[in-house]
Request: fold
Amino acid sequence: MIAVIPAIIITFNRDHSAQLGLIVFGAFALASGLLLVLVGPRSLTVTTDRSLFLIHGVVSMIAGALALGFHTGGHGLFLFVVSVWGAVTGLLEIYAGIRVRSRPLPAKDWLFTGIGAAVLALLLLLLPPNPVVSVGLFGAYLVFLVVFLPIAGLSLKGDSPRQRSDATAPADAATANTATNDLDSL
Reply:
């Protein structure tokens, strides 16, 4: 839901300047990073997953703070901050998805959103520098999140009965943190 307002702002605003892009990206990255830092430790049970998404949240908050702090930095700063953010967070999500591929629902979702962020970073670096195109691509990425994440969330909700049946396993098996248990993440 954090992506809805920025997606609307970029989609329906005629001003696709780098300044607008930095402000919208900064607000989005700061809010989503804060959400990951606050909610991730509560919702992820595997230490490695918590660490990955904590790093994701911190990177997002730093990128958001830089974008907001230097919102008059121009198109070059927009390209730098958004592409570094997209590459780092995308690779973190791809790695998290590969780690939990034994559980198809979170793995596919994390892989898909990670690939989306990595593709955003690549497109920003490969396409000719134009603020309208760059900010528009970020807006398209936000629209992708707005459409995909609710669908992914509903898919995970449908997976919850299996998680509940796993929770009835003996307590000593649930508390052991071995490499095989490390593959389950939610």
Helices lie at 4-12, 18-43, 47-69, 75-99, 104-126, 131-167, 171-175. The CA atoms of residues 25 and 48 lie 27 Å apart. The radius of gyration is 18 Å. The longest helix spans residues 131-167.
